[in-house]
Amino acid sequence: MTSDPSSENRAGYDRWAQLYDTYVNSTVATDELYFPSVYAEVRHLDVLEIGCGTGRHTVRLASQGNRVTALDLSPAMLDVARGKLAGAKNVTLVEADIMIGGDWGQFDTVLTALVLEHISDLRLFFAQVSQALKPGGRFYMSEIHPDRIAGGTQANFVAADGEQIRLTSFAHAEADIQAAASQAGLCLALQQDVIGDDHLVQLNPDWVRHIGRRMIRIWVFAHQ
Ligand SMILES: C[S@@+](CC[C@H](N)C(=O)[O-])C[C@H]1O[C@@H](n2cnc3c(N)ncnc32)[C@H](O)[C@@H]1O
Questions:
Q1: Atom of ligand 1 nearest to the CA of 56
Q2: What is the residue with the minimal CA distance to atom 4 of ligand 1?
Q3: Distance of CA 218 to the CA centre of its chain
Q4: Phi/psi zone of residue 85: left (φ > 0), alpha (ψ -120 to 50 degrees), beta?
Q5: How far is CA 26 from CA 21, 64, 201, 206, in A?
Q6: Which of 1, 21, 32, 105 has its CA 20 to 30 A from that of 195?
Q7: How remote is the CA of residue 152 from the centroid of ligand 1, in Å?
Q8: How far apart are the C-alpha atoms of 13 and 204, rounded to whole Å?
Q9: Which pLDDT score, from 0 to 100, does residue 127 have?
Q10: Is the C-beta atom of 113 inside 6 A of ligand 1?
């Protein structure tokens, strides 16, 4: 393995891809319960999705009538997404590293779920988002709650051969996220902390331990 975070995460997510959609993961489950209602208003727009993975949100964005460009580092994650989106004419899947950039066009909305922890350079990341947004556009983002990140939570899974894999992650402080967004001309429009509740316990009784915990944070930024 190299020491480049993107190469490491490409390799890690390539191994996770076949398991990802059925993997028991309380963060993904929380995101699935609460993030879609925040972007329910995103309809019939040009959308860039960063780190689409297996297409969990891509499928929903496409069904809301959006034209979606969905990019991801991992060819294997994209293969799973491609399988779900076969025939969707309003979706373009792209293998790309957001930190390297590319000319993907200009979008009404940029959206990303559970990717920020893998980003080494917040200022570069938010600059890429800002560059991709049309004036007045919005950026929707979900991530493991900063409290849990500060406590050491990060993406990890047990591979099919039993190996425990920890993806390469960065514990960004709340203030650094805000500062990087603001420097890129992105103004906070909404911030929502999702607290673990009975919905999680209904999915998995073991998740009773998450009741009352700040599980994820959702942000919406407006491009100035
Ligand atoms: C935890 S998964 C989330 C996938 C999907 N957004 C979801 O919520 O189910 C993180 C995804 O981000 C992708 N990723 C990580 N760093 C990236 C980068 N620099 N550029 C593009 N994709 C990246 C990974 O390959 C992986 O598919």
A1: 9
A2: 53
A3: 10
A4: alpha
A5: 12, 25, 10, 10
A6: 21
A7: 19
A8: 24
A9: 97
A10: yes
Mean pLDDT of 39-62: 98
DSSP 45: S
Which of 4, 6, 9 to mutate for ligand 1's pocket (most ligand atoms within 8 Å of CB)? 9
pLDDT at residue number 3: 65
Element (H, E) at 81: helix 75-84
Atom of ligand 1 nearest to the CA of 99: 19
- Buried-exposed string 169-196: b where 16+ CB fall within 10 A, e elsewhere: beebeeeebbebbeebbbeeeeeeebbb
pTM of this structure: 0.97
Helices (H), 85-197: 122-132, 146-150, 174-183
Asked whether 109 lines ligand 1 (CB < 6 A), one says no
Q: How far apart are CA 169 and CA 149, in angstroms?
A: 9
The predicted-structure confidence for 207-222, as pLDDT tens digits, reads as follows 999 999 999 999 999 9
C-alpha 133/C-alpha 85 separation (Å) is 24
Verify whether ligand 1 is closer than 6 Å to residue 27 (CB atom). Answer: no
Per-residue pLDDT, averaged over 3-25, amounts to 93
Q: Taking the domain 5-223, which CATH number applies?
A: 3.40.50.150
Determine if ligand 1 sits within 6 Å of the CB of residue 9.
yes
Which pLDDT score is estimated for 44? 98
Contacts for 177 with CB less than 8 Å, ≥ 6 apart: 116, 122, 146, 219
Q: Indicate the domain borders of the chain.
A: 5-223
Measure 72 CA to ligand 1 centroid, in angstroms.
Answer: 6
